[in-house]
Amino acid sequence: MIGFTKTPQAYGLTQGMARIVGVDLPAAVLEGWFRRDELEHLVDRCDRCGQTTRCATWLSGTRAASLPDYCRNKTEIEALSPGA
Fold it and tell me: Considering the entire predicted model, what is its pTM?
């Protein structure tokens, strides 16, 4: 299992953002589309962002084709999406 025990909230938000656009980040790592250190970078970036409440609210009811512009991981996550 891939997880980040030091930053579980950031890991959950990062996974949530990825799921919105159809990306399973742990599977992407296991299948070789994405490296674990790249995932760690996304989680760290999310943890330092300061938009936790905004992201949690956005994720609570959203189905979208793209992530919000304020998401610091938008480019990397969307590049992994099936429609990219």
Answer: 0.86
